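hiii, so i know i said id send this last week but things got crazy w the move. better late than never?? heres the sequnce for the chain we talked about at the cafe, plus the structure i predicted for it. fair warning i was half asleep when i ran it
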Amino acid sequence: MSQESKILIGIGIVSLVLVVGASLFLGGSSAPSSTGEKADPKILVRQNSHKTVSQATKVTIVEFGDYQCPACGSAHPIVKEVLSAYGNKINFVFRNFPLTSVHQNALIAAEAAEAAGAQGKFWEMHDMLYENQKEWSEVTDPNSLFADYAKKLGLDTQKFEEDIKNATYSNVIRIDQDDGNTVGINATPTFFINGEKQTGILSLDQFKGKIDPLLK
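okay and structure toks below
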């Protein structure tokens, strides 16, 4: 093998490593990867965590997500399909994991969701943030857009804006992040299905393949 060929192969390997590393750093993984790891349910779901149902279910799915993460945005409609298919048979829990080093608006978006949650509209704002991700994710100051969303949801916009300005729920978000770090989150979205870790975007069929056996 010539010296030139060796150099070209070396460059190719380095480029591949950089691409894979950048993908993980940006907090998105389109290919699902199951580690088989089990996490402590007491860490995955706190008493005040946002849940779709209040009663005990055979299946609990926990997502650690970032509202500005494109992969999370892509996973969102699939999660909605899962919830539509199973209803109250499963419990879905969302935990905040804003990747602030790469997503400038991720933290304030999480604060917007929590501020809406304080007025009983967490899931409505959660959905609105994901479904309008392209609108607000790259703007310098998304507050006016978030205020518009709050108005559409019938919230007390003055309280909503004050809560965001004062970072009223920063501790709630920090606890989510700390729990995520404890269970080894290094990319979003990361799901836990009855405690089993799954990184990346699952298709509806892949979700069903994991949920159906647990419901039997």
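btw Residues 5-26 have pLDDT under 50 and may be disordered. thought thatd interest u
miss u guys!!
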